[in-house]
Amino acid sequence: MPIQVNCPDCRRPLRVPDHLVGTQVRCPGCQTIFRASTGEEGPARSEDAFREPAPSSLAMPPKEPS
User: Fold this and answer.
1) Which helix (H) or strand (E) holds 65?
2) Hey, where are the domains in the chain?
């Protein structure tokens, strides 16, 4: 039995067949690729571009005074 998921970008409801649950699917409305999940596996987005960078990658060493 298909499950219903909402696209994380446009919120369009999509029916996903059971055999595709847990895989990446494309929204036919906005073309966003996301992981079709029941909500129990964690966030729906699978694209790394939407993750926040690790704090260590943001830290810059202080500049030496001139």
Assistant:
1) none
2) 1-40
Are 21 and 36 spatial neighbours (Cβ–Cβ below 8 Å)?
A: yes
User: CA angle at residue 5 from 7 to 43, to 5 degrees?
Assistant: 70
pTM of the predicted model over 0.70: no
In degrees and rounded to multiples of 5, residue 20 shows phi and psi of -105, -5
* Structure token digits, residue 51: 């993750």
Distance CA 65, CA 3 (A): 60
Mean pLDDT in runs of 10 for the chain (66 residues)? 92 93 94 86 47 52 67
- The end-to-end CA distance of the chain, in Å, is 68
Amino acid found at 32: T
Per-residue DSSP letter, 41:
S
Nearest to 39 by CA among 10, 14, 12, 5: 5
